[in-house]
Amino acid sequence: MHEPIEHPQPFEHWRLTVFYVLVGLVIGFYILRLFNLQILQGTNYRVRAEDNRTMEISTPTQRGLIYDRNGYLLAKNVPSYNVVITPAELPTDEGGIQEVYRQLSQLIGVPVNNGEINEETVRNFTPCATDLGIAQIVYIGDTNAPYSPIRIKCNIDQQTAMIIRERAADLPGVGIEVESVREYPTGSLTSTIVGFLGPIPASEEADYRARGFLPNRDKVGFAGVEYSLNDLLIGQNGKRVVEVDAAGQILRDLEPPVQPVPGYSVKLTIDTRLQAAAEAALVNWMDRWNRYFGEQRYTSGVVIAMNPKTGEILAMVSYPSYENNRMARFIPAYYYEQLQRDPYRPLLNHAISAEHPPGSVFKLAAALGILNEGVVTPEQKINDPGKITVEERFFENDPNPRTRDYVCYIYKTTGGGHGDLDFIHGLAQSCDVYFYKVGGGYKNEVPKGLNIWRLGEYAKAIGYGRVLGIELPGEQDGLIPDPDWKRINVGENWSTGDTYIATIGQGYVLSTPLQVLVSMATIANDGKLMKPTIVREVLDSEGNVVQPFEPKMLWDITQDPVIHVYDENFLQTGEMKTVAPWVVKKVQEGLREVVVSGTASTIFEGFPIPSAGKTGTAEYCDNVAQKKNLCQPGNWPAHAWYVGYAPFDNPEIAVVAFVYNGDEGARLAAPVVRKVMEAYFNLKEVDTETVGSSQP
């Protein structure tokens, strides 16, 4: 029996075709993929590969120092010691690791284990600001970068740091990191001038990163000259570009290291000795009167001293102040919040940022104007009966004027006035009625007063109503009001009374203590307004002067036409004018008479150096006074002002004192200025004797 013969099936070529197509597709896919990776995106991947094997390390620089004019350090860099662990350098066995942790815990007081590692704790982890134990901190560091040191505890004392270094053999992987932190030797005495540092703000991170600074490490100025001169002080970080392995271990430098460039140092115009004397004069005088009244009536104030010929600020006290050393390593949230909630705002530099009614110290502007515009002559007598009654109009033909009494300050105590006064004695006695009449006009006695528009011109010419450009943050421009300002901001027309009270520095007029000082310094300096400055010299890291001091005159009111000319309708003509030199001399004579026979004569009796000055008592009603229910009609509280200069014939120093809620300038502020002047001339004598004794 024959078995059936099986005939082979014919070969199906389509299967082979499908196979080839599939193979071709696979090969084509990989070819396209390789083409994409190596050709189209080759550059991108090469850069990424290069980034994976390279690391850029920022080397911190040294911030510049801050000195006073005599070379006394106001801000310096001191070492701060941090304990760090490099996870990759710990022992290989678990027992050895735990022994390192245990010994370190005993030295620095951080527990070996504390807290749990989870997504939230890792996300919120910040070295030196955590409750985690050593093991948990190292775990986070090992996970992120095993060859990078991670901080376990910051700012340990030097002795503990030295012990850890000495026991390096017993503590493998443990090290001491030394970082530079700011220290302020004079503390609160100069904190509103010097300021403090803080972390790079989030809004400025991109800019600082582009300049080579690290937000989590480097600090920038937050206040004072630390802030305003930050770009000079901060320097430039160095840089290393290194090759690293997959674990982050440094293998070699790929480029020559770029060394850090230290910041410039700054020598300020401040004399720390005079600063201390000025603060003591202010605080002790307020304390004396507080003890007299048996309550804390006087709590804050300002003292500024400057050289009127150069604009150098010799002392600048803003009281109360704050302790900037508490901000040196980090800014304590509770302390910062406490300072912000303080109603007297110690974080604010009141010398340049607080705006108050200047009161009678503002009469210098009117004094210049009434003589220069010919409103009165120096010899012309103006009568002060103690009180005048004026028809207050809101426009020239106001059909319903209201009558209002305007009194001189002595009327409240004597019931009378100063009688007939010429210019010198009107200024010396600070007679309000005299200045009411010459400022706003009064019947036939002064047919046409200075007027608010021209008053504003003379005020601005001596420094009011403008930012003067001192190298400190937060300077304010004050307020010299006019009818346009009032219509826009108050919604009313200007009135006769507005001009009267603006002439004596009340009403809407606001100024900073610095502006008051500059106004007096301009008169003392024969009309030359010098730019106030806090910076004397800029030094490089070797102590060489790279920017010497050069006084800058902004203008001379007797030479530079800075005053607009007005016609009989008080409209600007387009012309500009100067102040006649004789006018400045007459104002100087009036200010001299203030301390000879005027409102400050008792305070300056027996003062050996001839001086000149002006008292000021400025009524106010701010939020603090309202909260204390002090704003009683006809009996508002008042700030105390005094501003003066000495010697009269060759001024070396001008000083302003301001006491918040100080009642009377002659009583609360003038004695402070006298004390500061005495300290200045005593220090000058000591310095002269020291220089003389040091010469062969």
From TrEMBL:
Q: Write the lineage as a comma-separated list.
A: Bacteria, Bacillati, Chloroflexota, Anaerolineae, Anaerolineales
| Protein's name according to its UniProt entry | Penicillin-binding protein 2
Taking the first listed entry, what is the main subcellular location of this protein, grouped into a coarse class? membrane
Annotated compartments:
Cell membrane; Membrane
Give all residue intervals belonging to the Penicillin-binding protein transpeptidase domain: 301-678
Tell me the membrane topology, using the record's own terms.
Single-pass membrane protein
Q: Domain Penicillin-binding protein dimerisation, which positions?
A: 59-253
Name the family the entry cites: Belongs to the transpeptidase family.
| Keywords assigned | Carboxypeptidase, Cell inner membrane, Cell membrane, Cell shape, Cell wall biogenesis/degradation, Hydrolase, Membrane, Peptidoglycan synthesis, Protease, Transmembrane, Transmembrane helix
- Reported EC number(s) for this entry are 3.4.16.4
Molecular function (Gene Ontology), one example: serine-type D-Ala-D-Ala carboxypeptidase activity
Q: Which gene encodes it?
A: mrdA
Bilayer-crossing residues are 17-36
Question: Which InterPro entries does this one have?
Answer: Beta-lactam/transpept (IPR050515), Beta-lactam/transpept-like (IPR012338), PBP_dimer (IPR005311), PBP_dimer_sf (IPR036138), PCN-bd_Tpept (IPR001460), Penicillin-binding_protein_2 (IPR017790)
